[in-house]
Specification:
By secondary structure, the chain is of the alpha/beta class. The chain has 6 helices and 6 strands, in the order αββαβααβαββα. The protein has one domain: HAD superfamily/HAD-like (Rossmann fold, 3-Layer(aba) Sandwich). The two termini are about 15 Å apart.
C-alpha cells in the first residue's frame, strides 16, 4: 500500500468537526505502508488541518474550545483565495509540502469535493444532514463523481481507512 491518505479522529473531534469545518488530511510519513500498523504510531502520524474559508482566529478559537488536534490551519487566509477557487486547494497542498494526490479533502459539501478533486486531491464525503435544519435538501449524500470515499461520520471514515 503506497501513499494512502487517512483520517484519525475520536468521537469528540468528530462532533466538533461535523458541525464546523472541512479538513484536509494526509499521512506525515509517505514512505511506509499502513497494513498492520496503528494510526497512532509515529510512522503513521497524521497531519490534520482545517481547510476553511473562516479566518485563522476563528479556527484557533474553535480548536481551543473543542480540543481539536489540528497540526496547522490552512484555507482562505493562508491561500489568499476562498474555496472553491483552485488556489485554495493548491495552496493547502503546497503549505503541507505534499502533492495533491497525497492529500484528502474531507467535506460535507459536494461542490467543495468537486473543486478539490479537480485539483488532484483525493476526497471523502461525511454528511452533515442537519447543517441547514430539518428541511435540508442538499448534500445529504455523496456525489459519486466527486467523492472517493463516503462515511456516515468521522469515526466511520477512520474505520473505512483502516484506523
Amino acid at each position: 500500500m503506497t501513499a494512502m491518505t487517512m483520517v484519525l479522529v475520536n468521537q469528540r473531534t468528530d462532533e466538533a468537526l461535523a458541525d464546523r469545518v472541512e479538513v484536509a488530511v494526509t499521512r506525515r510519513d509517505r514512505r511506509k505502508g499502513l497494513l498492520g500498523r496503528s494510526c497512532l504510531e509515529p510512522a503513521n502520524a497524521l497531519i490534520i488541518a482545517p481547510c476553511s474559508n473562516g479566518n485563522i482566529a476563528l479556527m484557533v478559537n474553535l480548536a481551543k474550545h473543542a480540543a481539536l488536534p489540528w497540526d496547522c490551519i490552512l484555507g482562505a487566509e493562508t491561500a489568499r483565495a476562498y474555496k472553491p477557487l483552485p488556489e485554495a486547494y493548491r495552496a493547502a497542498c503546497r503549505h503541507l509540502g505534499l502533492p495533491p494526490g497525497e492529500v484528502t479533502m474531507v467535506a460535507a459539501h459536494n461542490n467543495d469535493l468537486k473543486a478539490a478533486k479537480a485539483q488532484g486531491l483525493r476526497t471523502a464525503f461525511v454528511a452533515r444532514p442537519t447543517e441547514h435544519g430539518p428541511g435540508q435538501r442538499t448534500d445529504l449524500a455523496p456525489d459519486p463523481d466527486c467523492a472517493d470515499i463516503s462515511a456516515a461520520d468521522f469515526v466511520a471514515l477512520a474505520s473505512e481507512l483502516g484506523c
